[in-house]
Amino acid sequence: MAAFVLATAVVAASAAFSGAVAERETLDPGAFARWALPIALTVHHLAVAVVAGCLLFAVVLLPPWRDRAAGVAGDREQRQDSHPAFTRATATASAVSIVWVFSAVAVFVLTYANLSGQPVSSSEAFARELVYFGTDLLVGQAWATVLAIAFTVCTLTFLARSPVALVATTGLALSTAIPISLVGHAAGSDDHFAGVGALVVHWLGVLVWVGGVAALVVVVPALTGSQAGANTSGGVPLARTVLERFSTLAGVAFFLVLASGVINSVMRLGDWEGLFTRYGQLILIKAAATLLLGAIGLAHRRWAIGRLRTVSAGRTAWRLVIVELGIMASIIGVTAALGRTAPPVPQELEPAITPAEVLTGYLLPPELSWDRWLTEWRWDWLWVAFALTAAAVYLLGVRKAQVWPWQRTASWMTGLAVLIYVTCSAPTIYGMVLFSAHSLMLLALAVLVPLLLVLGAPLQLMARTVARRTDGSRGAREWVDVVRPALSYPALNAVVLAASLGLVYYTPLFRLVLEYWIVHQVANLYFLALGFCFMTSVIAPSNGRPIPRTARIRTAAILAGALLLWAIVLAAGVLPVLAPDWFVNMARTWGPPVTLDQQLAGISVLVAGFAPMAFLLTALILYRAPRHESAPISTS
């Protein structure tokens, strides 16, 4: 509660300093709407962070059962006594989710009042226009989506208690970053979708970092109170274990927040002169506070982790956590004020004047030539953040393993480099205007990139460097056990992969993938994950029992044959033109006609789909693993 009060005070002072709440000459919604909106935004942002943080703790950091945390064996009936820390985290998520719902309603109504210049009222006309705002305008649709997510998460926090249900609820809470980012200031920059991606990364980092610190405050009494003596994990105090686990997450989140914050600031400020505006000064205050908070957090974690052996030391450490939360609440207050302050660079999108801009949001790229396969770039910060995080985590694992084949590391890094290239360069840029480029992009994500990543043996590296937990909580290895069935059946994965490609390209889903940024991103993530499952099941199945090599070879051969057949059919031109209203209306003045481009997509299927599968099939036939490597990956 103190954090909410402090954040409210900070946002009021920041809004007054920036002039965001000054009376307008025209379309003024009244003093109540001007002042209430930044306060409601602050409460909303804090509430969603607390809910996400508490759910994240319940999913990956805290043991659900008391006796498992103490190392006591027993059957399920003997473990029905929930751990108090887990109970506090889930109960707080349920309670604060109610605040989240009401604050989302307030933000939705006040945002409309501020944009329309109408005071908040209970009139029928205001209600009718509010409905139109939420159903037909982008800003209204975004906040209506946030409200729907808040209501759904609120309901689920009272009902969901199984691990899988809690994971789904946590993911839904974190997904709030997407609609909020769609209407952020940086999202209105010249490169709209790059701005959205950077904001999504920023918000995800904030939710994990700030929400995690808030969750630490919530579980303090259960970790350092009178029951602290029983709260152990493998002989180590549970408070120390939880802090070590969160410290790793907080470190990743801090760098995501800092890096994406710099990108967002560059988009909003334009040049160095922007720093001298009131908006720029608030940016500098926020950046300085973030750096200071990161330094304090790092020093505190290093000090606290080594000293959490007694109740008194633990209480001192947790008091410092409360101080961190107060600073974070102040930063969120400044952020809410920034959201109501006009940046130096105008953030209104220019009206689309060409068919390509209307359809894709970007000008038609220049004619595709061989050199432009390497020179055309448009950064997608979501995938850049994903790849850099995956690289850092893998390298830390390699360092911990001490002895690790360099070929595996090279394969993993190459796969991530190809992932960045495919999502940020010509395959994606031209994939919006050429079907041949789009098929190259999607098949690279579904076949080529997963092949390179799986050859890096990340599951083997995890099994060697990440210890299995004994307190009943679920970490990386435990969640791999949950998804292990998806990594165990090559034939099923091959069928799902082939069917998914057919459904995307030969149903109305393809138009949705082309038209909507979020559907495009979800499709990319889906095919990357599905391809990873397939490659793992073929190269190194993880199901506790060996899968015959002949069965894996047969599965790889069938999928390779299906891709080859698809390439031949495309090249023959016997299939109808896909999404003609999209590609024909692009008004492209260069390159092959739409029908010929679809035939050329056969080459894309051969390069990005069939060729990697042919390489895999050849390797499976020729390579015979030594006896000690022939067993499936161990996750025990």
TrEMBL record:
This is Cytochrome c oxidase assembly protein. It is found in: Cell membrane. Keywords: Cell membrane, Membrane, Transmembrane, Transmembrane helix. The chain crosses the membrane at residues 46-65, 86-110, 130-159, 166-188, 200-225, 246-267, 279-299, 320-339, 381-398, 410-433, 439-461, 482-505, 525-544, 556-579, 599-623. It is a multi-pass membrane protein. Its main location: membrane. InterPro entries: Caa3_assmbl_CtaG-rel, CopC/D, Cu-R_CopD_dom. Residues 242-338 form the Copper resistance protein D domain. It comes from the Bacteria. The lineage of its organism: Bacteria, Bacillati, Actinomycetota, Actinomycetes, Micrococcales. The keyword Cell membrane applies.
